[in-house]
């Protein structure tokens, strides 16, 4: 059973998402929060698999709430997905840097919404190649900030990260490197550990910001 926490200051939005989620046999809404402080408190109390967090909330916004959840070692299994009305904007970018696994626009189709919740629960990033491209173009295509931590990556780990930064799945990384999916996952997980990335979304951001991968200039 996938346990979901809803955090949005609009009761109508929360009730709509709850109604959609609770008709599914494998999903359970375990709590609702109306502001960022409550979202963090309920995440600590309920330990959901997925926390759907509105990016703009009173008391404490979704970015800071995400950061507090992501930085709490006891909540390492909680996958935060940011909810936004505006698509990929500066708020979403900061939320990804803070530890969000991805983001959803609130007018998403119901079937895509449910699929996204299941993807997040598996610990995968909600960053399709098109979204990754926009992320790079808007916010990451800036002077890199290289760090010594990059020296810790092996050649194969660097190759794996480069493919992840293109928005590829582990299976696609494996195909691109001519290795097994298990080996690809190992390379990706080791790179995440060495770079201090909570998940694949953060790995993409760190890969470009560090200069490990550079956006194409066309």
Automatic annotation (TrEMBL):
HTH luxR-type domain residues: 146-211
PANTHER family named among the record's database cross-references: TRANSCRIPTIONAL REGULATORY PROTEIN NARL-RELATED, TWO-COMPONENT RESPONSE REGULATOR
Keyword Phosphoprotein: yes
Keywords: DNA-binding, Phosphoprotein, Transcription, Transcription regulation
Name of the protein this chain belongs to: Response regulator transcription factor
Pfam families reported for this sequence: GerE (PF00196), Response_reg (PF00072)
Domain Response regulatory: 3-121
Keyword Ribosomal protein (UniProt): no
Modification 4-aspartylphosphate occurs at: 54
